[in-house]
Amino acid sequence: MERSLTDAAGRALDPLAESPERAEFRRELRRLIERESPPERIRELDEAASFDRELHQSLARMGVLALGAPEHLGGAGDVRDQVVAIEELAAGPTSMAAFLILQYMAIQVLSPAEDGEPLRVLRELVGGGCKVSFAMSEPGGGTDAARAMRTRAEAVSGGYRIRGQKLWITAASLADWILLLARSADFERSPVDGVTLFLLPAGADGIRVRDIDTFGLHSVPTCEIFLDDVFAPREAVLGEPGRGFRQVFGTLNRERLNAAAACLGVARAALDYSVDYAGQREAFGSPIGAFQSLQHRLADGALALENARSLVVRAAEVEAGGGQADVLATLAKLAASEAAAGITQGGMQLLAGAGFSREYPMQRWFRDVRLWHFAPVSDEMARNYLGERLLGLPRSY
Ligand SMILES: Cc1cc2nc3c(=O)[nH]c(=O)nc-3n(C[C@H](O)[C@H](O)[C@H](O)COP(=O)(O)OP(=O)(O)OC[C@H]3O[C@@H](n4cnc5c(N)ncnc54)[C@H](O)[C@@H]3O)c2cc1C
Question: Largest CB tally within 10 Å, which of 204, 274, 312, 367?
Answer without folding.
Answer: 312
